[in-house]
Amino acid sequence: MIIDLLSTAEESFLKKYAYKFKTDCTKFDIKYNITTEYSRNYPQISLNAREEIQVLYKIKDHWNNYNAKANQETISIDLSKEISSEEHVEIIIHPPIVGDLTKLNIEIPQGFDIQINDFQEKILVAGGVHTYGMGINAAGTMFSNIIARKMNLTPYHLSFLDRNFLDKIDNYFVEDKIDCKYEYGILELDYYKQDDFIVDNFLLKTVRHMLKHCNKVICWYTIPRYYKEKQYELFYTLDPLLNGDKLILKDMSFLHDSEFFDRCTSSNNFINDYANILIYKIIKEDMERLQWNI
Amino acid sequence: MEYLNSIDENIRSVNEKEYMFIDVFQNKDLFFENYDYIDNNSIIDEKSLNYNIYGNRMQFSTTSKKIVFKVELKANTTNLKLADWNSRGFDVYKIKNNKYYHKTVFAPFGNNNIFSEVISNTPNDDLCVFLPNFMHIQKIFIGIERNNTIKKSKNMNNENPILFFGNSITQGASVSRSGNSYPNIISRELNKDAIIFYKTKQIEINKQLAEKISLINNNDIVILISLNQYLINHIHTLEEFISIISESKTDRKIIFLIDDTSIRKLENYHYRKNIHNRKNRVIIYFNELFDEDELDYIKYDDNHFSEYATYILSDKICEFLG
After folding, report:
1. Which pLDDT score, from 0 to 100, does residue B109 have?
2. Distance (Å) from the C-alpha of residue B177 to the closest C-alpha of chain A?
3. How many other β-carbons are positioned within 10 Å of the β-carbon of residue B47?
4. Which helix (H) or strand (E) holds B59?
5. Which residues of B touch A63 (CB under 8 A)?
6. Which of A121, A292, B72, B177 has its CB 3.0 to 4.6 Å from that of A287, i.e. a possible disulfide?
7. Quick one: which H or E segment has residue B143?
């Protein structure tokens, strides 16, 4: 039996970052193709994160990495030692950060049960290089993918490898490419490197778009202290929207402080998986504090 | 960064005549604190156990405001699965009052094995460059502006290096830049050189190696043991290995780091109880450093540690060695 996870996925202009299913079969194959047509140099991320899928399985309420021996076409899964044959196991597949999935089939022997069970609620994750995942070593350690796994959300990405990205996010909304409602939205606002023109014209607009399409929104930024005036500008600009508990603004600038800089960044430009895990923990804490149904 | 066809080719982006180039490997004592450690200590017969035989990092100080690196890496040995800044990366730090401040990182792209890179420098800063974790350096020249000087870093204090025995994790697989392998993090935290012995899967756990390690004096030692099926089935071999090393007369600190996914199978074995009775010996079980809820991001597969886990582990090791 072959299940095509791409064709069964909901249509979207956005890249879906987690494919999920449940099965009582402990031995099956994941067959996939990834297009890798890019000429740019990515010295800060591993090939696994650039061009490989990452597979995790859930056992006793905890997600575990599957030790995938991949050849960029097939991953043969054998969970017979981890899971009894009577149990159903949940599987998540995270696509690569740079390459695009063009095929994702599950080949499972006849007689077994398989249910595609995406998380019911969706999360829209928008931003620039940090949201894109530059600096990490596996797709599964992106903060958005950790949040998705731990909080049962299906992640959709709208991220750009561009210094100026707010206008591009805005453009997706203006062109009606975001056509459904998301339960949560996370928007990166690391705008201190963006042109003033872009910030002046698109910062507030983009946040308003997010608020319109997402029930709850977290905006976050990590701005080095020597750009402190940019932090003040950010608060000043967003202040009219910060009443109530529908929008949270989170300052992650500590990632650039001396205590964390070395372990969380490669430079002012990129954050690694350590930083992504800290971001996940902070966002989770806020979501729990506000009892955002997690 | 400029790519070259040969190490003898002139760099186009700088006027080489304005620079003086120093052959690093011909001046090992200037750049490497423990360049002769492996030669002088027959710890392990196979030199191939170590990638950078003069040390994982080079240090120096110069009055030059610009520093040119001219490098030839051994062709076709790259591990393309890793981030370039790790496998072939040169990770540069400034050292001040024993603290390390990250300055920059650079690596050549694709199959470009010969290249030059220019970095800026504050005159007389002490610099530390962590070398590629997965690629041999054939030749390396440091260029400084003429009429400037280069000297040993004040940070080179001739302390005994910490020795690390392990596998590709010890070598630094799966971190984002070369300075972030756990031996290199620890070397920054404790401001000591790290000498690494590793084999891709694992150093061989046997009596002979244990006896060799137990003869080492004056070095703190960290041994990573990845529990594979062989060791689980031959637990006495592991017990004997740990016992021989633990009972060695040296009072230096020895850490057994067990990358343990089978902890429940092993925790009742008496070696664990015995080792806790010895003052300068400790076993760190990797999984015990984390909550059960963190299993999905402390490793990338069932083997390699994430950078987050690497730092948490390094903190724990420093706690004991520091």
Report:
1. 85
2. 7
3. 10
4. strand B57-62
5. 295-296
6. A292
7. strand B137-145
